[in-house]
Design goal:
By secondary structure, the protein is of the alpha+beta class. The chain has three helices and seven strands; from the N terminus they run ββββαβββαα. The protein has one domain (about 10-145): Nucleoside Triphosphate Pyrophosphohydrolase (Alpha-Beta Complex), CATH 3.90.79.
Length: about 150
């Protein structure tokens, strides 16, 4: 039986938390498809009836055991992954929120096999998705705007 995520009938809505502190960003290494082995922000699917911002906060809590403060919407993006035959295997509309951690301790759940804090410039060289690189560039822009007088 295939996952409801694979070969969907319509795009699925994903939510994520782009957690940052002291100029670094927190990424997890995905244990399962899609994007197995790649670094990405914590996140998952929006549940029926759920507010996207609350869902992103929930996903961070579930994946990292971390409470966060949501600072605002960072990006909405489209991610389409095709199989070898060119068929759409995954299609997500991704809603990512900028977040600040309210604690230090991180406890990973079974969905990832690692985490780390990265300088934004290091993300370009990581095994990650184009969307993770895009959202990191957006984060850098937002932080520059915040520093302007």
């Amino acid at each position: 039986m295939r996952s409801r995520r694979e070969y969907p009938e319509h795009p699925l809505v994903g939510v994520g938390g782009f957690v940052h502190r002291e100029g670094k960003v927190l990424l997890i290494r995905r244990k399962f498809e899609p994007n197995k082995g790649r670094w990405a922000p914590p996140g998952g699917l929006l549940e029926v009836g759920e507010d996207p911002e609350e869902a992103a906060r929930r996903e961070v809590r579930e994946e990292l055991g971390l409470e966060v403060e949501v600072e605002g919407l960072l990006q909405v993006a489209n991610e389409v992954i095709k199989d070898e035959e060119g068929r759409i295997k995954f299609h997500f509309v991704l809603i990512d929120y900028l977040m600040r951690p309210l604690g230090e301790k991180i406890t990973l759940n079974e969905e990832s096999d690692g985490f780390d804090w990265f300088e934004p410039s290091a993300v370009e060289g990581l095994n990650t998705t184009a969307n993770t690189k895009l959202i990191t560039r957006r984060y850098v822009e937002v932080m520059k705007e915040r520093r302007k007088p």
